[in-house]
Amino acid sequence: MRSLTFVALSALLAISSVNAQSSGSASATASASLALMSASPSAITADANNTAASGASVGKAFKYFMQVWLENNDYSTVAALPAYQKLAEQGILLTNYNAITHPSEPNYVAAAGGSNLGITDDAYYSIPANVSSIWDLVEAKGLKWKTYQEDIPSYGFSGFSAHNGSYVRKHNPAIIFDSIGLNDTRSANVVPANVLYDDIAANNVPAYSFYTPNITNDGHDTTAAFAGDWVTNFWTSISNATFLKDALVLITFDENETYSTRNQVWALLLGGVIPANLKNTTDNTYYTHYSALSTVEQNWNLGNLGRGDANQTEANVFSFVANALGVTNVNVTNVPMNNISIPGMLTNQSWNATHPKSTSTPLPSSSANSSASGSASASGAIAVTAVTGLGVATAIVAAVLPYLL
Ligand SMILES: *[C@@H]1O[C@H](CO)[C@@H](O)[C@H](O)[C@H]1NC(C)=O
Ligand SMILES: *[C@@H]1O[C@H](CO)[C@@H](O)[C@H](O)[C@H]1NC(C)=O
Ligand SMILES: *[C@@H]1O[C@H](CO)[C@@H](O)[C@H](O)[C@H]1NC(C)=O
Ligand SMILES: *[C@@H]1O[C@H](CO)[C@@H](O)[C@H](O)[C@H]1NC(C)=O
Ligand SMILES: *[C@@H]1O[C@H](CO)[C@@H](O)[C@H](O)[C@H]1NC(C)=O
Ligand SMILES: *[C@@H]1O[C@H](CO)[C@@H](O)[C@H](O)[C@H]1NC(C)=O
Ligand SMILES: *[C@@H]1O[C@H](CO)[C@@H](O)[C@H](O)[C@H]1NC(C)=O
Ligand SMILES: *[C@@H]1O[C@H](CO)[C@@H](O)[C@H](O)[C@H]1NC(C)=O
Ligand SMILES: *[C@@H]1O[C@H](CO)[C@@H](O)[C@H](O)[C@H]1NC(C)=O
Ligand SMILES: *[C@@H]1O[C@H](CO)[C@@H](O)[C@H](O)[C@H]1NC(C)=O
Ligand SMILES: *[C@@H]1O[C@H](CO)[C@@H](O)[C@H](O)[C@H]1NC(C)=O
Ligand SMILES: *[C@@H]1O[C@H](CO)[C@@H](O)[C@H](O)[C@H]1NC(C)=O
Questions:
Q1: What is the pLDDT of residues 264-306, one digit of tens each?
Q2: How far is the CA of 336 from the centre of ligand 10 (A)?
Q3: Transmembrane stretches, by residue range (predicted)?
């Protein structure tokens, strides 16, 4: 990931509260929703018991939402590759979807927090536990969530990297939030990716999930073509999973590779809730990573974080969902560049972690629980530099994981 330092920007606070996205009245949308969904082979039906095992409640347009993030490739590069073209035949290609900023970490944070929260680089950050995130909204509604992380060495692992950098914290949208990372109960939802197959087998996939391939599979250290083959295989490997018939799946990229241009990335909607007549079509509505937030917030009536997810310009709801829900999107003609990180509360608050060295620590068995994280490979010294309002304090702490041990 590129590391850029942006200086002397106007000190806009990234977490300004704005008006919530407008939505149609529930009664007005109900019939439209039914009409649209009945076109789908897998109409959402009332299933009050669905929450029992999986936490997947009956959303208005889908019961499950999963996003899969690939890395650092330009829209034009990806769109030209056969693997992606073939996948796109099964879904709705979003031809005007945009990342929020550069480099990686602030995009992953924005995807969960509705803002880059001042993060402008890929260093070790801990977002104060009082900062809200989508994980809070999802839990407050009684829904379950997980992030599936390839090559994470243990459940809830909070180290900077593992397996020689194949797993990286900066690509983990949950653990950076201390409300998750410092809470054993919640960080148990941050799991090795192979757990997904167990969850599928047990019909226990959570309502809201995020899948992060390792830095080889996601294209970061390879190519868009490599990532295209990986994601094709990934999709094939889960394509007969039961949850998918009621799922909306977003496959996208964290950011565009070229900083000097608009931050457009390739993005595709898949899953059983895509109406049959919309498969193999495109949607040119202006979307961003905040659209993935606003779409689930509207689907499950979660409320919002009052940040980018509530900014009408940046948070159009995916059209077929917006139509089903009676949400009115805005026509964004003056498209934002989204190619720079907004300074804010976490600017200059990063740590320099000594990267835990790769060890022979095996992945935990998928039936292990979060207590297994005590055996993680990340014991070691971490130099912590905390920049406070009063100055810079440096400390050496023992990085025994999880932190609360
Ligand atoms: C829902 O769960 C209750 C209690 O377990 C059960 O009595 C009822 O039959 C279930 N309903 C459906 C539709 O499965
Ligand atoms: C949130 O927590 C941070 C760090 O502990 C603290 O500095 C800040 O004042 C808190 N903010 C609010 C609104 O409580
Ligand atoms: C670790 O990763 C670096 C590149 O990131 C690579 O050059 C090196 O060969 C890797 N080491 C092992 C043991 O895989
Ligand atoms: C990434 O995961 C794949 C399996 O999907 C594995 O073959 C590969 O070795 C992993 N990459 C690294 C760098 O560990
Ligand atoms: C940890 O998370 C659980 C589940 O959300 C919550 O009940 C508990 O209060 C949290 N603990 C702390 C210390 O915040
Ligand atoms: C799903 O597909 C995989 C491979 O494509 C196959 O091994 C598995 O048996 C299938 N499962 C079901 C339930 O059809
Ligand atoms: C963002 O894009 C604009 C317009 O191309 C360009 O002037 C600016 O330098 C870019 N910013 C960065 C940080 O690359
Ligand atoms: C990044 O996205 C912009 C906007 O679509 C596109 O013009 C540009 O081609 C992409 N970057 C490159 C080098 O393709
Ligand atoms: C998708 O649409 C293209 C034309 O836009 C067509 O050539 C292709 O056969 C379609 N694929 C499927 C699977 O329907
Ligand atoms: C909403 O997003 C637009 C486009 O990025 C930005 O210009 C505007 O300042 C944002 N509004 C608020 C209230 O933050
Ligand atoms: C958005 O606005 C542009 C410019 O006014 C117009 O050409 C376009 O048709 C509008 N698109 C939609 C979907 O309303
Ligand atoms: C982290 O290390 C880099 C490279 O040594 C240095 O440039 C940077 O200032 C350090 N950041 C902090 C927060 O200490």
A1: 999 999 999 999 999 999 999 999 999 999 999 999 999 999 9
A2: 9
A3: 380-404
Cβ–Cβ under 8 Å, residues 110 and 252: no
Does pTM surpass 0.85?
Answer: no
Q: Which is catalytic among the residues 136, 221, 246, 254? A: 221
What spacing in Å lies between the alpha carbon of 65 and ligand 2's midpoint? 31
Class of residue 17 by CB neighbours under 10 A (exposed 0-12, middle 13-18, buried 19+) = exposed
* Residue 55 CB neighbour total at 10 angstroms: 21
Pocket test for ligand 12, best of 124, 125, 352, 384 (most atoms within 8 A of CB): 352
What is the rounded distance in angstroms from the CA atom of residue 88 to the CA atom of residue 99?
Answer: 19
Express each pLDDT in 328-354 by its tens digit. 999 999 888 888 888 899 998 987 665
Closest CA to 86 of 301, 273, 298, 232: 232
CATH number of 2-403: 3.40.720.10
Check if 309 is active-site: no
Mean pLDDT: which of 40-49, 65-74, 334-343 is highest?
65-74
Contact 143, 136 (CB under 8 A): no
